[in-house]
TrEMBL record:
One of its GO terms (biological process) is coenzyme A biosynthetic process. InterPro entries: CoaB-like_sf, CoaB_strep, DNA/pantothenate-metab_flavo_C. The lineage of its organism: Bacteria, Bacillati, Bacillota, Bacilli, Lactobacillales. It comes from the Bacteria. Keywords: Ligase. One of its GO terms (molecular function) is ligase activity. Residues 2-103, 144-250 form the DNA/pantothenate metabolism flavoprotein C-terminal domain. This is Phosphopantothenate-cysteine ligase.
């Protein structure tokens, strides 16, 4: 099989030396990749510079990205080159990216300037509307500094929502067996299953691996693999998860 795996965690630049990221190490993606490789499959591994990855070998191609935008571009480029039998989307993708950054003084200056132009804003509904409009305008401020000065007491960071990468995967590669992942924190098993099933249905996944951060400690990595029929299987370590996912993908591919 020709397999595409995303692993690690994207980061979003604040300036040329700072960024926002998450705690994903890519350890689970590495285990999944190594298991597919051990079974003789070809793996394209899309990851970040800091994340773990399988050892180099002939059947492995590594593609490095940093931001969510990079990830989308890299995936679209791969989809033009290859038809994948399965996509394992285990990467922790940033929900938001930076829009602009302003010091406290600059933000207040721009907001005051914008509202002053609107005249008398004694009506609460009108004031609220204008505040939203002003924030949209401020968010479009082009950040000039390559490194934001550290002298300000407060730094205001504007974030905007990233596109959901998983939502476009089946549209781009409808033949691929798609495995999605959902991480929650401190929820019941019932909620974990409910959210995982919703992700599966919404994004046309064949499988979703749902897990809870509070049940990830060292080698322990408890989670539930849900298929399109609502059937579930559990695993308790990263190696068990990798073996389970590879087995299920291989079984579906053979059918």
């Amino acid at each position: 099989m020709n397999i595409l795996i995303t692993a690690g965690g994207t980061s979003e630049k604040i300036d040329n030396v700072r960024s926002i990221t998450n705690h994903s190490t890519g350890r689970l993606g590495k285990a999944i990749g190594e298991t597919f490789l051990a079974n003789g499959h070809f793996v394209t591994y899309v990851t970040t510079p800091q994340a773990l990855r399988p050892k180099s070998e002939d059947n492995l191609t590594v593609v490095e990205i940093e931001t969510t935008k990079d990830l989308e571009s890299a995936l679209r480029a791969q989809f033009k080159l290859h038809s994948f039998d399965s996509i394992i989307h285990s990467m922790a993708v940033s929900d938001f990216t930076t829009e602009t950054t302003l010091s406290e003084d600059l933000f207040i200056e721009k907001l005051a300037e914008s509202l002053t132009k609107k005249g008398n804003l004694t009506d609460l509904a009108k004031l609220t509307e204008e505040l939203y409009h002003s924030l949209d305008e401020i968010g479009e401020t082009i950040q000039q500094e390559k490194k934001i000065p550290s002298g300000t007491d407060r730094l205001l960071l504007f974030l905007k929502k990233n596109p959901k990468i998983i939502s476009m995967l089946k549209d781009e590669q409808p033949q691929a067996i798609l495995v999605g992942f959902k991480l929650l924190v401190g929820v019941s098993t019932e909620e974990l299953l409910q959210v995982g099933q919703a992700i599966l249905t919404k994004n046309k996944c064949d499988f979703v691996f749902a897990n809870d951060l509070e049940k990830i400690h060292g080698n322990q990595h408890e989670g539930i693999l849900i298929d399109a029929q609502g059937q579930t299987e559990t695993a308790e370590t990263k190696n068990e998860i990798a073996q389970l996912i590879v087995k299920k993908v291989e079984e579906k591919w053979r059918k």
